[in-house]
Design brief:
Elements: E1 22-25, E2 28-34, E3 43-49, E4 58-59, E5 66-67, E6 73-78, E7 88-90, H1 92-96
Antiparallel strand pairs: 1-2, 2-3, 3-6, 4-5, 6-7
């Protein structure tokens, strides 16, 4: 049976590919995407929240169900005028299907 060649100790790993679609915000990746139905002409900033960092409960505007602590999800806000009060937490699947259905919950 043939033996494997031993690996060199000074082997360098290649650098990760440069992702030009998003930018780093703190330790999270951000990107711009079109908005949900009714807001498709607007650009939204989208940030992924991993389950380990999701510590609070939120209400998804796509399905009007709770996003429980520990569930990975997305945070979105309008790119042009968005602030902290404009951020919305979405289930990943609800954000993916945002073009086929409108918001189920409206904020004043």
């Amino acid at each position: 049976m043939p033996r494997r060649k031993p690996q060199r100790k000074n082997t360098r790993r290649s650098a990760p590919p440069d992702d030009s679609e998003g930018s780093l915000f703190g330790s999270a990746m951000m990107r711009q995407e079109s908005g949900p139905a009714g807001y498709a002409d607007e650009s939204f900033i989208v940030r992924t929240i991993p389950g380990a960092r999701a510590t609070k409960s939120y209400r998804c505007p796509g399905c009007d169900h709770d996003i429980r602590p520990g569930v990975a999800h997305l945070v979105t806000w309008p790119a042009e005028y968005g602030g902290a009060e404009d951020r919305r937490h979405w289930h990943t699947g609800c954000w993916s299907g945002r073009s086929t259905r409108g918001l189920t919950r409206r904020w004043s």
